[in-house]
Give the backbone structure.
Amino acid sequence: MDDLTLVTWRKSTRSQAATNCVEVADLPGWHLVRDSKLGAASPVLKFSAFEWTAFVAELKL
């Protein structure tokens, strides 16, 4: 998964302003997150399905 050039990114529904956007992408068994301001140069956070579920649950608290 080193080559992310073909990954389809979408703006998070929780992003408010164009300057503070988070982009997410779904791959089989994985969820990716990056900062849209940096685009392809952004570091990417990689979550397993289990980790993603726990992450989102914590955000909702």
The helical segments are 49-59. Residues 49-59 form the longest helix (11 residues). Strands lie at 10-11, 22-27, 30-35, 45-48. The mean pLDDT is 84.
